[in-house]
Specification:
Length: about 450
């Protein structure tokens, strides 16, 4: 056994020296340097203590933040670059209960989850931690927590349904008796404002959209703005659906090989094959539909495509697409006004999950796309995303979004002016918001009775 230092928690008396030189036996004489040695009993106790401590360190569960979680930490001004959502906390809690599987936190990791016996949630009503000083005061004012090493303060963005000025559309039915292609008359007006479907800056950061100020792992060389200046977006701003196809190249990334743009009339206003700057090592034909013969005589470069798109778009244009962050990354373009169909449609109620475009088109448009093994058609995909957005505009904000439907139901419940057998209703509301179960029902069906009723008796 090597030299070890003793802490204040050692089972030895305070008179014991912190350095162990050797184990004393009956045939050994005391050392001549004045250092006090351990008896056999003290040595056995120390050995047992260190063994138990080592075992605890190896098995004690702890939370570690990844890059996404570190962005949620408060800075010196008391704000974070990318606040967490209650659904993010919900994923961590569900992961601590069920272990690896469906609920995996995207902002942290929980080490030694298998050693957790139970998960408890403690909500302290009226306690706000907005700065690092608040966090230190919190620890000092509640000594019971002093032995636990909590994470540095993180910012959490509360659900919009608790805000009084957040109004949900009353039309929540998701029964699509006819498709947008069958409703082209003037009586089919937009019910949901298109500006309400736009992604916020926080959403663009969470979904990894290319932003000029965002911390990203890849270089920003070659990125351009779609306009030198932008106008405020309105409900009359034009919408364009974009879809790109990519191939894998020698630089170890996907590069643009095809781009298609359609307008609100589903007309193709731009279509081009693109010759990547680097050698293609995998055409990914089963997904991209691109082959060597298709690109044989193509001379159009990424810069040419950027120039064309910059000319087409107006300063208030709205771009539509399925996980459009990947397309904008391939195009190397920055654009502020985005509607992402993978975000505004949600089939299972889990805010962190995204449904494939093929599934969305089948469920809501009764369209069969991306069939066969010849690859995707960027024109077909861009038309599908435009139709999905147009359908939602004619329905409601909650249409096709099981998560928003669940939030609306929950908000209706907690705002009812009825007597509820709960002592601290405000704390109970926060408890529900934090632990709201992920709905397994389709966004096309009615959400079952609220989870809240299970807690009231």
């Amino acid at each position: 056994m090597g030299k070890r230092k003793l802490t204040d928690k050692s089972p030895l008396s305070s008179n014991a020296q912190p350095v162990i030189k050797y184990k004393r036996t009956s045939d050994q004489s005391p050392p001549t340097n004045g250092a006090k040695t351990l008896t056999e009993e003290e040595y056995s106790k120390l050995k047992l203590y260190l063994k138990e401590k080592k075992k605890i360190l190896k098995t004690f569960p702890r939370i570690l933040l990844n890059a996404r979680g570190q962005l949620s930490q408060l800075n010196d001004q008391g704000f974070s670059e990318s606040p967490l959502l209650p659904s993010d906390l919900n994923e961590l809690i569900l992961y601590s209960i069920y272990g690896p599987g469906k609920y995996v936190p995207k902002w942290s990791s929980l080490e030694m989850q298998c050693n957790l016996n139970q998960t408890c949630v403690l909500i302290i009503d009226g306690c706000e931690v907005k700065t690092k000083e608040d966090f230190l005061n919190f620890n000092s004012s509640l000594p019971i927590f002093s032995k636990y090493k909590f994470l540095p303060p993180i910012e959490v963005e509360l659900p919009p349904s608790w805000c009084a000025d957040y109004d949900f559309d009353t039309t929540t039915s998701t029964n699509n008796e006819s498709t947008p292609t069958q409703k082209k008359d003037t009586e089919n007006k937009e019910i949901c404002s298109r500006t309400r479907l736009l992604m916020s800056l926080n959403q663009m950061m969470v979904h990894n959209y290319p932003l000029p100020t965002n911390k990203r792992q890849f270089t920003m060389d070659g990125f351009r703005f779609t306009k030198n200046h932008y106008l405020p977006v309105t409900d009359d701003s034009p919408m364009y659906a974009i879809d790109c196809e990519m191939c894998y190249t020698s630089i170890g990334r996907n590069e643009l090989t095809r781009v298609s743009i359609v307008n609100e009339q589903l007309e193709v206003i731009y279509e081009s094959l693109v010759k990547p700057a680097n050698k293609i090592t995998n055409y990914l034909t089963v997904y991209s539909g691109i082959t060597a013969s298709k690109l044989k005589d193509v001379k159009t470069t990424l810069t040419d495509v950027q120039d064309d798109i910059i000319k087409i778009l107006s300063p208030d244009s709205i771009l539509i697409g399925q996980s459009l962050n990947c397309d904008l990354e391939a195009l190397k373009l920055f654009h502020p006004y985005i509607i992402d169909t993978s975000v505004i449609f949600n089939l299972n109620g889990n805010k962190g999950s995204k449904s494939k475009l093929k599934l969305l088109a089948k469920n809501f448009l009764d369209m069969n796309i991306q069939c066969g093994n010849l690859g995707h058609d960027s024109i077909e995909d861009s038309r599908a995303t435009m139709l999905l957005v147009q359908l939602k505009l004619c329905k409601s904000l909650t249409y096709g979004d099981a998560y928003l439907i669940g939030q609306k139901r929950l908000a209706e419940f907690v705002n009812k002016k009825v007597k509820i057998n709960v002592k601290h209703i405000e704390t109970f509301k926060k408890f529900l918001a934090l632990l709201q179960s992920v709905s397994e029902s389709s966004a096309k069906d009615e959400i079952p009775p609220q989870l809240a009723t299970d807690y009231i008796s």
